[in-house]
Write the structure tokens for this entry.
Amino acid sequence: MPDRRWTLEGARAVLFEVRRRTERAVEQAERWLETRETTREGSSERAEADAALNELVERWAREMEALGAEVKGVWLVDFDNGSGYYCWKWPEEELAWFHDYEVGFAGRTPIQ
């Protein structure tokens, strides 16, 4: 996928779909995590839950990339604006953070 530069308005417009797909993935992940926590380590059920969780996160990441977002972590995406990133992490309601290329998530500042 070619590099994409986002305007704030464009990134906010796609955020509805990012949130919708992330919410669905989080709900599915929570069910698999519950299964994982209630099964014995080394059991086939635990292995199935682990595999399902991995596939779920990978599928979510592919969906985010298809929308043009850059996946930076689990349930964390950035939108490159040419001078840094608009940054969003589940369960934030809106796209309200920015960080430059060097500082990353830890250096997020509110969008003015």
Remarks:
- The longest helix spans residues 8-37.
- The helical segments are 8-37, 44-66.
- The two ends are 30 Å apart (CA to CA).
- The first strand starts at residue 70 and ends at 73.
